[in-house]
Amino acid sequence: MNEYLKRVLEETKAKNIHEPEYLQAVEEVLTSLEPVINKHPEYEPFAILERMVEPERIITFRVPWVNDKGKTIVNRGYRVQFSSLIGPYKGGLRFDPSVNQSIMKFLGFEQIFKNALTGLPIGGGKGGSDFDPKGKSDNEVMLFCQSFMTELQRHIGQDIDVPAGDIGVGAREVGYLFGQYKRIKNGYEGGVITGKGLSYGGSLARTEATGYGLIYFMREMLQANGNQTLKGKTVTISGSGNVAIYACEKAQQYGANVVAMSDSAGCIYDKNGIDIELIKQIKEVERGRIKEYLKTHPDAQYIERTDENSPIWTIKTDIALPCATQNEVSIKSAQNLVKNGVIAIGEGANMPCPKEVIEYFLENGVLVAPAKAANAGGVATSAIEMSQNSMRYYMSFEEVDKKLEDIMVNIFKSCKDAAQKYNLGNNYVAGANIASFSKLAKAMKAQGIV
Predict the structure, then answer these.
(1) Do residues 61 and 77 touch, judged by C-beta distance below 8 A?
(2) CA–CA distance, 404 with 421 (Å, rounded to integer)
(3) Which CATH number is 3-188 given?
(4) Is residue 308 very low, low, confident or very high in pLDDT (cuts 50, 70, 90)?
(5) Is 300 left (phi over 0), alpha (psi -120 to 50) or beta?
(6) pLDDT tens-place string over residues 256-284
(7) Which CATH number fits domain 208-369: 3.40.50.11060, 3.30.565.10, 3.30.470.30, 3.40.50.720?
(8) What is the mean pLDDT of residues 133-143?
(9) What single string gives the DSSP state of each residue in 107-161?
(10) What is the pTM of this model?
(11) Residues taking part in catalysis
């Protein structure tokens, strides 16, 4: 490895020894940048890498709230404002018990590169809390969101930092957060948060954007490798949240046979093809478990999860779309997928495949659509929402969807061109890292030592 890269990686590991997810994200990016660093020795005197891996600001705060029984609960809130090189900090909020500083930094770091790939003027950030909205009443969620925003509002603004939703933060939570922000600021600042409801400044196609974008990227990747299409391909999708649902919907529109989806308890296998409208009813309306699919489709099969390996990856498939959470695909699961003939992986979640798993797929000739490129459709459409808020204008669903499709086509082209420029073949993982890093490094050098 290049000595500069090696030194920065070792220093980063020493400084962040208790943050495994963050270190994993940094190592995945840095180890793919060697061709660029070798070509640009001038980056070292400017400490480009050292500044790239250090957040501009980390805000940690307590979030006290009162539950329905009158008991005061205290959670911890975070906002990692990682990079404002090319625009205001932009990235979602995650409410989940697993949230800690390492996960916030990993997500914020990934967001910098993802946002750079969109070609839009947005920097990178991430935030959230260890609060769990599952099982909470609407009133409890509202009180938590209001307390969370009471602190967060000091640090955000439509030209400073623009949060959005993520795991555990859907339309309900975004509404409560925005309402509290508006109440405190005594003004309507629509562009301060994205993923808003259509009745108060949201964008059409935002709900569908990440899942649709994943499939647009997959379409381009298949076409560039043997002129293949999604039509007739068997697809399995982990998760049953926003990304998974709309990836399924768009894949089915292209003629793919989506046979399996999952949640944290297990997966549904329906050889006749997933009934996506039923999944929407169970997950988006009833907030139920995916096992309830059997009530309507008793001929389907439910496979319970018994260990850390999701059973969905034992099902024979052409295309696997991990859309649940980070590090969800183990090496054992990857081996099952390869043994069963998988041809392509599309990362709908953030970093669902650890570095060794990605390397295993690539070594076995499996195409990999990396998360920072393939799931960038959500944040791209958030930026489109910000533009609409600034213009006081609404675009039609078709207008937004066409812009999203164009952005995803351009993202794939950037990844492909970067990989080809450095003789990396169809390694789009490295291509995504190189394309986004090159843009960020140029901006960082231009702005001086700040």
Answers:
(1) yes
(2) 26
(3) 3.40.50.10860
(4) confident
(5) beta
(6) 999 999 999 999 999 999 999 999 999 98
(7) 3.40.50.720
(8) 96
(9) HHHHHHHHHHHTTSS--EEEEEES---TT--HHHHHHHHHHHHHHHTTT-BTTTE
(10) 0.92
(11) 126
